Model the fold of this input.
Amino acid sequence: MSRVALIDAGGANLGSVRDALERLGAKVAVVRDGDGLRDAERVILPGVGAAEPGMRLLRERGFVEVLRTSRQPLLGVCLGMQLLFDSSEEGDVECLGLFPGRIFRLQESTGVRVPHMGWNTLQKIQDSPLLAGIDDASSVYFVHGYAAPVTADCIAGCEHGQPFAAIVQRGHACGAQFHPERSGAAGARLLSNFLAWSP
Done:
């Protein structure tokens, strides 16, 4: 049974992510400061909200340096994934720098509303144990107005008026732009794969 540290970064999805992990047999501890990460086998950074207040809270609670230097498997979810990158256009803020690249604002166009809310289709880009059992073209649930670019670290993409990264992986860190806790079987499988992942 994995011991998972779930970072309380002020997101409203904290309880639903914890419930989804516990259904998979994980032992979950909600942590509110950086010291709480040290004994965890795995770390999840969920998030709902904006980049600047999200990073400010991580700094105030002593998470930033621990996240930058620890080597436990780390999963960022939604805003939590965006905070893994170098920086974000949202508030022009420096982020954790575990992934190269800058988070950008999705652009509205004819028939394309921002924020991107609802179900959309994953497009597998490269093989990864994190995608085991997830069919290409699986539908998952998104709520976001900003997104990560499709780079060499992107293992699954999506499109909402323009392409963006849906799942990223680099070293011990990975991220999902969608909400796995709200994405049915595909989301549960991603979380299960993360719990078994050995980067």
